[in-house]
Amino acid sequence: MTTPVDAGGAAEVLSRHREVTVLCHVRPDADALGSSAGLARALRAEGVVVHHSFDPGVVPGALRVIPGTEHVVPLSAVPAHDGLVVTLDCASPDRVGDWGRLARSATEVLVVDHHRSNPGFGTHLLLDPEAASTATLVLDVLDAGRYPVDPDLATSLYAGLVTDTGSFRWGGVGSHETARRLLAAGAESTALGFELLDAHSFSWLRVLGELLGTARLEADAVGGRGAVWLTVPNEVVAAVDDADVESLVSHLQGVREAGVSVLVKEFLPGEWAVSLRSRSGDGVDVSAVASALGGGGHPAAAGCTMRGDLGVVVARLRELLR
Length: 322
Ligand code: AMP
Ligand code: MN
Ligand code: MN
What we know:
This protein is α/β, with parallel strands linked by helices and about 325 residues long. It has helices at about 5-15, 30-45, 100-105, 135-145, 150-165, 170-185, 190-200, 200-210, 220-225, 235, 240-255, 285-290, 310-320; strands at about 5, 20-25, 50-55, 75, 85-90, 110-115, 125, 215-220, 225-230, 260-270, 270-280, 295, 300-305.
């Protein structure tokens, strides 16, 4: 049975444990790693033994700028223990990867997340779809439990906030208030912002140019709102940084003629990670499309993983995006 909790309830769960495994979603983004690194740091400062990990557990180069990611260990190195497992920014149990062994040995599983599509799992669930980032929820929990927030912790949480709000383009007043708190606590935003939002190698520019030349516009798709599509084959994915591949979706989102963007990435041969974006306020809930394909996310940003022939994958997506 899953008990819904607020930030105070989540802090109470944390206070019961002296050994905690902190996990975030597979192929982590800055919110997954930032929220989990922030929580891990707060618990360690209280003398709690923390295992911070994800499946499989190698931090992407572009995210190593987030303080605390240097303490991430491979999932296979995390001992099964009784006590607590916390999952952060994971919209479903699958998104945590191969963590069954750890979930089974734990006495409690606390889920902290902000995806509307989350069906609810764990023994305790802090789910707020209105939260701008999971990092925001972690700050609420730390405040409720009166954990001190030092500059490194603030920087880790800021990483999740700045990226999940599209650099504060959405998230409203609350996200600016959270930012104010984190900056006042000493969060470093300049070098962090460069590494997370802007940095790439020079050689990426040539690959980017070639890839963008293959993007396709379907002006009539999605009830006339238009869709822009880009597929990244495995030979390209294998030759460049994952973060560069992820950054492609922002180029698609700027296309005026398209209300919906579809980025199809072949991370493994025949396995396609699909990123869907819809222009906010445009009324297309792409998380419904992603959920229908076994994934999930937010109304304006969602994803799923599909297997098989590219033609079939594209046809299935096109059908749901008519
Ligand atoms: P992405 O396109 O990978 O940046 O993901 C966009 C949003 O959808 C993020 O909030 C992800 O956490 C979420 N998401 C991506 N893939 C999945 C999935 N397979 N299941 C649930 N949520 C997902
Ligand atoms: Mn995430
Ligand atoms: Mn998030």
